[in-house]
Amino acid sequence: MRLKYPSSVKIVRVPCTGKIDILHIMRAFEKGADGVYAVGCMEGDCHFDSGNFRARKRVEQAQKILHTIGLSGERVQMYNLSSSEGPLFAQIAREMTEKIRKLGPNPIKLAVKKAA
Amino acid sequence: MSEAKTPSKLEKILRAGHLGVTSECGPPRGTDPDAIKKKAELIKDHVDAINITDNQTSMTRLCSLASCIHLKLMGLEPILQMVTRDRNRIALQSDILGAASFDIHNMLCLTGDHQSFGDCKQGQNVHDLDSMQLIQTVRHMRDEGKFLGGDDIKRPPNMFVGAAANPFADPFEIRVPRLAKKIAAGVEFIQTQCIYNLEKFEEWMRLARERGLTEKVFILAGLTPMKSAGMAKYMKNRVPGMDVPDELVKRLAGVPKEKQAQEGIDICVESIQRLKEMEGVKGFHIMAIEWEEKVPEIVERTGLHPRPKN
Amino acid sequence: MIVADKKPIEEIIEEVKDHDKILILGCNECVTVCEAGGKKEVGVLASALRIYFLNQGKEMKIDERTLERQCDQEYLDEIRDVADDYDAILSLACGVGVQFTAEQYFSRPVYPGVNTCFLGATEERGLWTERCQACGQCVLASTGGICPISRCAKRILNGPCGGSSNGKCEISKELTCAWHLIVERLKSLDRLDDYEKLFPIKDWSTDRAGGPRKVVREDVQL
Question: Please, are residues B20 and B83 in contact by the beta-carbon 8 Å criterion?
C-alpha cells in the first residue's frame, strides 16, 4: 500500500505483543525514547489466546510506573488492530507522534545533556 | 437438673424449674455510669439477670466488668460477657477473679466480633483462647480451684457459666454437635442468637433433645423485637449469622410505618408464646437493643411476670 | 513460599534518595515466584529509579544483581568483592533476606524493597493466599488438613464462630470460613465425628509469643 507514517517511529518486531515486557518499555525510556506504543491484534484474535491482553496489562503497569516517577503515563499506549488495517496503522502512528510531540521530549534526554 | 452449684440467682431460678428471663444492656461510650443504671432500672423488675456486653461489634465502650459492678451495687444480678478477642489467658483469668471479688456469679463466654467491625480496625486481636476454651478455663478455676498454670486459687471464683449458640449459622449439620461440644467444655446455660425462623429453631431443638442435650444445659431462647421493616431488612442482609424469614419482613412492611414498632413487639410476644411450648426451652433472653423500655411489656404480655423471688 | 508484595516506588525513592551508589539486590526464590523481587522486578525498579533521579538532576549509580538466595551465606558471599562499590543496598528479598544481607554487610545500610506478607500459595496468576502462620506445632492432622490458625480471622481452634454465614467469614464475603472448609473436608473424609473432639488450650510458646525461635538440628550439624 506504501502508506506514509512518521519516520520518527522505530518499529521493534515481536512475535506477539505478549512478548513485550514492562522491562522493555522501561529500558526504551531509559535510553531516551519519547514514547512507546504497542500494536497488537484485535482482542479475542490473539494467536496465542491472551498475548494482547497480557500486553495491555503491562502497558498499564508501565503507565503507572512512569506516572509515579514524574513522566507522563500518556507516553505509553496500547492499540489493537487487525493485519488488514494498514491505513489504521499509519493513522495510529501519526496520532501517537502528535500526542508525544505535544508532551515534548523525554525529559531525561535534557537531564543527560545537562549532566554531560 | 440437680441443685445449684453457685450462688447465682439465675442458676437457682432455672434449677427450680422456672422459666428464666434475662436481658442485656450495652455500656455507654463514655464514663457516665447513669447510662447503664438507667437502662437497668427500666428492666430490673422484669428479668432475673442482666447481660452486660463486652465491647460489642468491637466498638470501644465502658468495660463490661465495671458496668457489672455498677449493677451489683444496685443489688441486681449481672451476667458478665467476656470475649476472647481482647485479652490473653492472663487477663481473662485476672478479670474473672476481679468479677468474682464483687460476687458476680454469672459469666457468658464468647469469641467476640472481629475488630474490623469496630472503631479500632487497625488493632491486633488476641484469641489466645476461643470461647470453648474460655468455658473450660472458668470451669477449671471454679471446680478445681486452680489457675490454668496449675497453682491454687485462694477463694476460687464461683460462676454460673454460659455461652452463646447460633442455631442458624452454617453449616447446619454441625449446629447441634457444636452445642454438644460446648456442653462437653462445661457450659451450663446457653443464650441463643435472635430467633426469627421458628421452624429452623424447632428443628435444632428437636435434634438437641434427641441427643439428650436439653437435659444437660439450660437453653434460653434469644429474642430481639424489630423496631421497623427497615431494621428487619438490615438484620436479614447485613448482620452475620442472622436468619430473618421473608414473611417476617413482609408482615412488618405490611403495616404503616408508625405501627411497625408495635407490630415488632407483637411478633416478639407471639414468638415467646410459641417457644414456651417447645420442650427444652428453659427461658428467654430478650435483647431489646436501645429499646430496654419495651422489655417489661414483652415480659408481662407473655405471662412471665412477676419474676420468682429466687 | 514466602509471599511478598512490591513497595510503592515513592517509598523506595524516600529510602534511597540520599545515596549516590546503590545496588538493587533481587532473590531468585520465593519473591521471584510471587513476582515481587526477582530479576525482572529488579530490572524494572532499577530503570524507574534511574529515570527518576536523572530527571531530578541527580547522578546516581544504580546497579542490578539477583542472587540465588539471600537467606544463605554462601550466596550472599557472591557480592563480597563488589559490596564496597556501593553506599547502600536495596534488597528485594523477603524480610529474612533483607536482614541476612544487613548482617553480612554490616557497615552498609540495607533497605527493604518489598513488604513481606505471609506464607502462602499461588492460587492463580496474580493471586496469592495465606496458608500457614508457622505456629511451630502443626494442628493439621486434626483439622482435616485445613489450618484454622492461618485461615480463620480469629484463629479459633473450636470453630466456626457465630459470624460465619453461607460458608463465608464475617469479615468478608470474599473469604471462605476456614471452619466451613474444615467441616466439609471432615465430611468428605467420613470423619465428621472428629468435629466434636474439643481442641485443648493451645501452647502458643512455639508461636511468635515465645520470642524469636530457632531450630537446632544436631543430626545435620557439622
Answer: no
A60: number of Cβ within 10 Å: 14
Chains B and A touch (3+ CB pairs under 8 A): no
- Chain C residues lying within 8 Å of A20, measured CB to CB: none
pLDDT digits (tens, 9 = 90+) for C113-168: 999 999 999 999 999 999 999 999 999 999 999 999 999 999 999 999 988 888 99
Give the start-to-end residue ranges of the domains of chain A.
17-115
Could you identify the residue written with the cell 491505513? Answer: A87
| Distance separating the N- and C-terminal Cα atoms of chain A | 44
Alpha-helical regions (H) of chain C: 9-16, 30-33, 39-55, 73-76, 95-104, 148-151, 178-188
DSSP string, chain B: ----SSS-HHHHHHHTTPPEEEEEEPPPSSS-HHHHHHHHHHHTTT-SEEEE-SSGGG---S-HHHHHHHHHHTT--EEEEEESSS--HHHHHHHHHHHHHTT--EEEEE----GGGSS-TTS----SS-HHHHHHHHHIIIII-B-TTSPBPSS----EEEEEE-TTSSPGGGHHHHHHHHHHHT--EEEEEEP--HHHHHHHHHHHHHTTGGGTSEEEEEE---S-HHHHHHHHHHSTT----HHHHHHHHTS-HHHHHHHHHHHHHHHHHHHHTSTTEEEEEE--TT-GGGHHHHHHHTT--SPP--
pLDDT tens sequence across C156-207: 999 999 888 889 999 999 999 999 999 999 999 999 999 999 999 999 999 9
Q: What number of CA atoms fall less than 13 Å from residue C146's CA on the CB side?
A: 21
Total-model pTM:
0.92
Alpha-carbon distance C214 to nearest alpha carbon in chain B (angstroms) = 22
Domains in chain C (CATH in brackets) are 2-118 (3.40.50.2300), 136-209 (no CATH)
**Domains present along chain B, CATH in parentheses:** 9-294 (3.20.20.220)
Residues of B in contact with C165 (CB under 8 A): 169-170, 240-242
Inter-CA distances, C24 with B12, C20, C38, C47, C106, Å: 72, 13, 11, 11, 17
What residues of C are in contact with residue A112 (Cβ under 8 Å)? 54
The answer to whether the beta carbons of residues B21 and B61 sit under 8 Å apart is: no
| Contact residues for C12 (Cβ-Cβ < 8 A; gap 6+) | C45, C49, C90, C111, C113
